[in-house]
Design brief:
- By secondary structure, this protein is α/β, with parallel strands linked by helices.
- The protein has a seven-stranded parallel β-sheet with strand order 3-2-1-4-5-6-7, with helices on both faces.
């Protein structure tokens, strides 16, 4: 039985991915702040391990990863997914608190989780594993009024490349999935905002298709790696944007 930790597992892409891996028979660490939602998922799956954790807290993240390995014996994959989309605007309109929170969750949180996973994978036997970072189409071309989100997601691309390079010596593969408008609550909020402003919202796709893409990346043989994958709504205005 293979093992994975999914951060941001209580909702959205994280939850859909965690539930898919659980049905595929993986041991899944459900890492998020929402204890009730994690317990709800775990109640239906014996192979789920709830890890109630704030990804911005270094000590809590370290404790959660150690707890998981103690239960699962090893860590094969990390889906580094937790993130937020703070209220948008031009750079002079974005509140500093929203900027700091975006950096803390979207960048620091992903760094801390990757750091723990890398150390575990480097030292376990057999050595190695796979880290899958959730980037975004915004990691390549921004949507309007999203400088805080786009800046952090561009940083994730650098994190992915560095981990791919540094992980080679230890059998650690790292790839990035860039997801365009899977139907999560966060995307639904953007859709409703666009409608309220009299704009046509971007097309969306089923969140389950994003989850299946993560599963494909995770189940590749160790000699193969998807470095970057873009999965998005077919008619989403990504090509030609930016």
């Amino acid at each position: 039985m293979r093992s994975i930790i999914v951060t941001g597992a209580s909702s959205g892409i994280g939850r859909a991915t965690a539930e898919l891996f659980l049905t595929e028979g993986w041991t899944v660490g459900l890492l998020a702040r929402s204890e009730g939602k994690l317990e709800e998922i775990a109640s239906a799956h014996q192979n789920a391990i709830p890890l109630v954790t704030d990804v911005t807290n270094p000590d809590a993240v370290s404790t959660a990863f150690r707890l998981f390995v103690n239960r699962a014996n090893r860590l094969d994959v990390l889906f580094n997914n937790a993130g937020i989309f703070a209220p948008g605007g031009t750079i002079d309109e974005i509140a500093l608190d929203d900027w700091y929170q975006s950096v803390n969750v979207n960048l620091n949180g992903m760094f801390l989780s990757a750091r723990e996973a890398f150390g575990i994978m480097r030292n376990q036997s057999p050595q190695g594993g796979r880290i899958i970072n959730n980037g975004s189409n915004a990691a390549h071309v921004p949507r309007p009024n999203s400088v805080h989100y786009s800046a952090t997601k561009h940083a994730i691309t650098g994190l992915t490349r560095s981990l791919s390079l540094d992980g080679r010596a230890f059998g650690i593969a790292c790839g990035q999935i860039d997801i365009g408008n899977a139907r999560t609550q966060m995307v639904q909020n953007l859709v409703e905002t666009a409608k309220a402003e009299g704009n046509t919202p971007d097309p969306t796709m089923a969140v389950e298709d994003a989850a299946r893409s993560v599963l494909h990346m995770a189940t590749l043989p160790t000699e193969a790696n998807v470095q970057f994958m873009t999965v998005m709504a077919t008619t989403m205005p990504y090509i030609g944007r930016g």
